[in-house]
Amino acid sequence: MERLQKVIANAGVASRRKAETLIATGHVTLNGKVVKEMGIKVDSTSAHIEVDGVPLTREKKVYYALYKPRQVISAVTDDKKRRVVTEYLEDIQERVYPIGRLDYDTSGLLLLTNDGDFANMMMHPKYKVDKTYVAKVSGLPTAEMLRQLRKGIMLEKRKTAPAKVKIISTDRRKNTAILSITIHEGMNHQVKNMLAAVGLPVSKLKRETYGFLTLDGLVSGEYRALKPIEVAEFKKIAELNEKPKHKNRPKLSRHD
């Protein structure tokens, strides 16, 4: 027995969070009846589930890396008719959705899948999967600014985890700099808001890496399937990071 939103996510319809929204807004039927209650457990092998009248089917799990261009929405659809990331994967049969998001004006590495468990593992902060961005900012970073970023910034009434930050280059004449910043969380506009909070507004942003994965071999708008060994490595990293780390305790002798 699995929660209904998890079954929907694992069928490749949407992320688990989006699946919860679909349930709450009456888009899901279970055995012919609309359900809006969260937490319902179902037998995915026998229950008849439909989303907007389309029956769920078990798809082969697939995983893709896309070099997202700027001015593209990290979504499956957009009510403003703007271009969305799934349009770049129109030739695949499975229904995939982006893992997390990159802002409309942010380019770079984006993962897409129809595996809800994998998507949750990549997005949830407890799994600590690093994502590295390159940001062009207005202003010249000081040691104090970098210290604040490395310590964590108060955003949305909570403190971010410490970021890894380094200066790539500075242009004193234009009063700009290029920074590399690595985080493992995924708050809305997090990198932009962190840098703005210390006085370094972002003018251009690109995600260069996701975990160990890079943009090597891709140009803007291109995608590729992840290799099975890459998917396995992501799962291994997440599982290792999830385990609590205990400090070494001194060994006790029989007489202690």
Automatic annotation (TrEMBL):
Q: Which EC class, in a word?
A: isomerase
EC number(s) given by UniProt? 5.4.99.-
* Any Gene Ontology biological process: enzyme-directed rRNA pseudouridine synthesis
Name-wise, this protein is Pseudouridine synthase
Q: Which gene encodes it?
A: rsuA1
Q: Name one Pfam family in it.
A: PseudoU_synth_2
Keyword tags: Isomerase, Lyase, RNA-binding
Q: Which SMART domains match?
A: S4
